[in-house]
Amino acid sequence: xxxxxxxxxxxxxxxxxxxxxxxxxxxxxxxxxxxxxxxxxxxxxxxxxxxxxxxxxxxxxxxxxxxxxxxxxxxxxxxxxxxxxxxxxxxxxxxxxxxxxxxxxxxxxxxxxxxxxxxxxxxxxxxxxxxxxxxxxxx
Length: 139
Fold this sequence. Notes:
- The protein is about 25% helix and about 25% strand.
- The protein has 3 helices and 7 strands; from the N terminus they run αβββαββββα.
């Protein structure tokens, strides 16, 4: 949990290393594969918060009067914890379907099924996915 005055200015965002990106692009080019890019528009809104966060009611929303505050259940854009909450949620879902995070770069996830591999690279709320359709259907 972040505490103001201690670590409040620390911000985490899942960003892949440039060497990982270059290696993935080289592998895709060498193998003649396709790379798919995904932009998760509501990424930060899907992150589950681990701590209690309260905020002033937004303008135009006055339930219970102006002295009341909102208790956030999920992350919002602009919240310092939002990128970390998104990454934690995404990692849990990916690991739940068999992906594992790379030891060298926590933003690279690998799914291995027999001789087939799927690479998924996360950069904040963008995802690069390397897989051929024949591999996908063959799993």
